[in-house]
Amino acid sequence: AVERTLSIIKPDATRRNLTGKINARFEEKGLRIVGQKRLQLTRAQAEAFYGVHRERSFFGELVDFMISGPVVVQVLEGENAVLANREIMGATNPANAEPGTIRADFAESIEANSVHGSDSLENANREVSFFFSEIEIAG
Ligand code: CMP
Question: What mean pLDDT do residues 90-106 have?
Answer without folding.
Answer: 98
